[in-house]
Protein 1
Amino acid sequence: MSGQSAKHKPLVSVVIPAYNYERFLADAIRSVLEQTFTDYELIVVDDGSTDNTPEVAARFAGKIRYVRQPNIGLSATRNNGAALGTGDYIAFLDADDEWLPEKLAIQVPVLQNHPEVGLVTSLFTLMDAERRPMQGLKPAQAPGETFREIIQRGTATPSSFMVRRSVFEALNGFDTALPTMEDFDFGLRLAARFGVSHLSQPLGRYRIHGPSLSQKVEKVYPCYIRIFERLLASRDPSIPTATVTERLAHYRYLWGRHQTLNGNTLEGRKLILRAIATWPFLGWSLDQRQPAWRKAMNSLKVYGVIAALYAAPSRIARARPS
C-alpha cells in the first residue's frame, strides 16, 4: 500500500467514517488493505465513538491514518475525511461494509479513461452481521446514472462511491443538514452537472444488521420532501420539473399516510391534501419503465387508501406502503 508516506501523493483517498462500529471496523479496514490496487491512502475518521473503536483502529497503526473528532454526524465525518486526503479520487466505505479485493482496480480506470465521469458506483452483495452471504443485491434495482433516473430509481450505496476530488469539492461534499438520504442528495446534485457511471458487477458486501436508517420513515420521508422542495425552489431550467413534482407529491402522501396511521390525523390529512394539490395523479409514476396499466392500478390503490384513511384511519393501521 502506498500513500502513507509524506513523499508520495496517492491517487485515491479512501475514507472510512466510524461511529460505534468496533464489531465491524476491522473487517472494513482489512478489505481495503487487501486491495489489488495499491496507490491509495486509508483514512479512518472516528466520529466520537464511545465503544472500542480507537483500540480497533490502533491494531492497524502504520497502515492507516486514524483521526478522532467530536460526534458531528455521518455527512460531516465523510467530508472531513475527504478534506484530510490528498488523492485525486475519493472512495468511501462505511465501517460496517466491505470491499472485494478488485474494487479500486476496476473503478480507477473508469475515471482515468472517461474525463466526463465524476462518480463511479457499483452493486454490492448482501451479508448478515456475521458475514454470512444473503440473497439479493444492494441496491435491489439498477440505480440511476442521469439526474432523471436517480430521482426515479435512486443511487448506489455510498460504500461503492468513487468520486473525483475536483467534483466533490465543487459540490461542497455531502449536505450536513440532512440527517439521512445525504447520498441520494449528493448523487442528484452531482448528476445535474457531471457524468455518473454505474458498474453492474458487485464490488463489495453490504451488511444487513440492526435497525437501518432506511427503515426510519420519520427521517427518510421528510428528507425526501426537503430535497425535492429545494430542487423545485432552485428554478434550474435543467431540472425535469414534472418528475421532481411527482416524486415530491409521492413522499408527501407517504409521510401524510404515516402520520395519519400513527395518530397524528390532522397533520397527516394536511400532508395528503397537499400531495394531491402538488400532483393530482398520485400513484401515476413518470418512470417510463412502468406500463400504463400498472400506473393506473397504483393510482387507484393510492386513492383507495386515502379514502379509507378519511373514513376510518384506525381500521387500516396495518396498511402497507404503496
Protein 2
Amino acid sequence: MAVLSISRAWLGNSSKSQSIATAVGRQPLSVTYLVIAGGGGGGSCAAGGGAGGYRSSVSGESSGGGSSAEMDLTLSTETPYTLTVGAGGSGGAAASDTSGLAGSNSTLATIVASGGGGGAALGTSSPTSGGSGGGGGLGGQAGAAGTASQGYAGGTGGSSSTNYPGGGGGGAGAIGGNAGGGTVGGDGGAGISSSITGSSVARAGGGGGSTLVGGTAGTASAGGGAGLANSASPGNPGTANTGGGGGAGSGQTLSTADRTGGGAGGSGLVVIRIANTYRAIFSAGVSYSASSSGGYSIYTVTAAGASDTVVFL
C-alpha cells in the first residue's frame, strides 16, 4: 500500500511522472549479435581475398580466429546506435598485376568487425591484412595476417613458377591454404556456421587461389569465391552478405594483358537478436528482414551506410 500511495502522489505532479516514464523507458537490454565485415578482393591473378572479420556473441558458437563467443551487448533504449554493413573490396584490376582491395568494416554500436584483406597478384604486389588476411603470391610469399578474435591469416603462395599459383585467403574459421608447389592454388580458409537466424548458415570463408596456363584452382566455401585455372573469366566474387573473400583472377597466357582480374569480396552482415518485449527501429537507409523464434525478435540487416542507426524501444 505504501508503494501505491507514493505512486499516486507522484502521478499528481506531471513533471515528476514524466521523469518516472523516461527513467523506466531507458532500462538497458541485452543484445545478442553477429557482425561480419566485407570480404577482401582477390588479386588480379594468384591469391584469394581474406574473409571479413567475424564477431559473434551467440552462446555455444564461436567468434573468428578460434575465439569463443563474446559477451552480449548491454544497450539503452531510446538511444541511437551506429549500424553499418561493410562492402566487399574490389578485386585486382584486369590486364595488370594488382592486389585486391580490403573490404569495409561492419559496426553495431561498439562492436566493429574489420574488413577482409586483399589477395596478392604476381610481380611486386603484396597481400593486405584484415579481419582475415589475403593470400600470398609467387615465390613463397606469406599470406597477410588476420585480426585477433576475428579471423585467420592467408595462405602462402607457390614456390615455383610452373603455373604461378597463389595462396588462399584466410577464413574466419581457418588459415588459408598454401599453394601446392608450382601447380595448385591454395584453398580459401574455412568459415564459421551460426544458427542465430534459426537455421545453421556458414559464412566468412576465404577466397581461393588461382593458377595461370593450366594447373589446379583452389576451392572455397562459406561464401568465399573459388579460384580459377587457365581461365579467361574474371575471378569469382564472394557471396553477398557472407563476408566471403573474392577468388583470384587467372589467365591463359603469361602476358600481363591476359590477366582476368580478381573477384570482389562479399558484403558483410549484421544480425541482432533481442527479447520480443523490445523492438528495433532502423533509420531510412537500412535494409533488413525481421523474424521471431523462442521469445526473441531477430533482425537480419543486409545493408546500412555510414550514417545509419538503430534504436531499441
